[in-house]
């Protein structure tokens, strides 16, 4: 997407700027945008163009990120309910990103959405629909340039192609162009060099696996129907020892922001995403004002040559002007006679990286250059460029693309200079200074962007830990509001599908009669006067009433991102965020964190209610508690222990009175999280604490897979202290060790529990590893004693984790009073170390059962062999 330097203000249209005039309807129009998500830069760049026009034209904007229509899981059907909030009563017009929405079910599903919004003025992007004006791109010009570049410039003959979804019209046109152009150049079409994709990065990875691993193909170049699949293919090729571009050239389509920052920078077909967003908004506003627009509107595409195709970047040798035809015309005359034509060349040369510029910047550049050449102002040219390019960098446009403008100037003006050697030298100096300035600005802009992105990521990581630790809707609402200023979000509202319980609102669905109603639990406005609390609606709102009721009273123009709140296939509500940062992942990530926290709060509310009822009920209390605790303890155990690189076997044997043993295996990218612990005590409170630990660890590990074990333990401890001690009035605490295993065999762990054992394959002896740290849930602050430690598994090594029920099992009969002990366990491990993990597990458990037939504590054992 076009990212914006947050250290300075965005461009504010001035009163004399024609674009600042409100839309000609006498009121502030409201436009809805329907999009699949705001996570990828393709969508957010288009939305940025719409948002900027809406700001200039005084238009309210609501962006509904409701998923791909009909797509499975969280990418589609789990989010699709959000589109129910968008109706023809609340808005004056709508823009539908039809190409993205229809990637699963095709144009018919998008047409149904548009029919429901009729007769609103509508514009469809990237897909043509009957009776709906559309805005699309001319794939042919750019796609043909890309394929012919690979064939004629590089001489490639075996060009693989990753298609997009078959139901996507744009993807099909690109595929047809691929076939047409290669056949035109005498290359026979080979269907084995083509595979279908999904427009996601993972499709690029899967395509490389199909071409190389399964089909065993050799190819010179790989062309993808969009950038994300191309960007996914590059690391997949590298993983197979194929370097880009020396072994395989890679070319994409779209020119998303990631393309220019990839390694190597991606050669791609550029479509003007930001400008499409601007145009779509202008088209729908024209219709709202009663104007007519063409049924089909087409934007051009062009090839952007970088390094992934095997060329040097298009900017790597910018000083070469090519053949120069000298002229007797002086430069002043050349500028006077052909100034308009020269300015058009300059505008084309920046490849659209001038979206933040006021009209006439090209004239300013040429006038400053000519003035400095004739001695009218030292430094005027570079100072003019510096002023303009600061705006370019602040808007997130590509400063480096302006090198092309300098090359164009040099090529156009050089013919008038050879007869004036002094001015020629002066001009070359000015162009050289301009290039240095651009390089410095580009470097600074990238550094600012990186620092800003890192800050956002850090804030989101911290907010995720905070929200997941709340475990209560009342606390969650306050925690969400506390994060908004840190993220630069000026306004927010949250509405939940309500169900009244003894302790308040949860996110469970209501009855069928009011299934659509939502209860507003957050209303935040950063511009409200100090001490003023925004009032919440007194009763649940129908979906169509949510936006007018919440955003309407603001009294200012607003652009709002509307995100779904859901857990698996259960809708929870919606989160409305007034748009501040341009990075769409901020809104998506916050909504995901809130959804997970709501589900956690729902579970905790149910658990607390259950605990309260059990404490009140005296009759058969102990028996029922034991039954429930046993069910909790066994139900939270992981059912699938499959982890890449590990052969895992585990078992927990409950005692007569259920203890507090816990273990879990949470697979994540590049390995898994393993937890093992023991909650002090017996009965239902212990079972509740185990469930809180399992819920908290599972949520944190999946949401923050690359966090350190120490950070997860600190967040979990905060949640346990709040819930167990403050809310439940209990005093349970636990020993707990969290391990982060990675595919290379490395282990990072934190938290106090029994020592870990690693049976080394090369020696056949056990290594004992201490697990230092405090208990969790015992006190609020365990920062000082909680540290990360490291260990390394080598191929064949066996990791043994256990609870004290094993080592502290007490013998009966002749050896009454003796404990099983860790030495006896180590001896058995070393003796049977070559057995499978399941066999070794059973050997140890059988030995403990024979040693102590009756036990008063749970026994848990997890054994994992590292297989590489």
Folded structure, characterized:
The structure is a single chain. The chain is an alpha/beta fold and 868 residues long. The protein contains 23 helices and 28 strands. A ten-stranded mixed β-sheet has the order 11-5-4-3-1-2-17-18-13-16, sandwiched between helices. β24 and β25 form a beta hairpin. The N terminus is likely disordered.
Uncertain regions: pLDDT < 50 for 5+ in a row? 1-25, 314-321, 500-515
Instruction: Kindly report how far apart the N and C termini lie.
Output: 39 Å
Number of strands: 28
Rg measurement, Å? 32 Å
- Report the portion of residues in β strands: 15-25%
What can be said about the biggest beta sheet? 10 strands, mixed
Specify the helix fraction band: 40-55%
> What is the approximate shape?
globular
- Count the DSSP helices: 23
Structural class from helices and strands?
A: alpha/beta
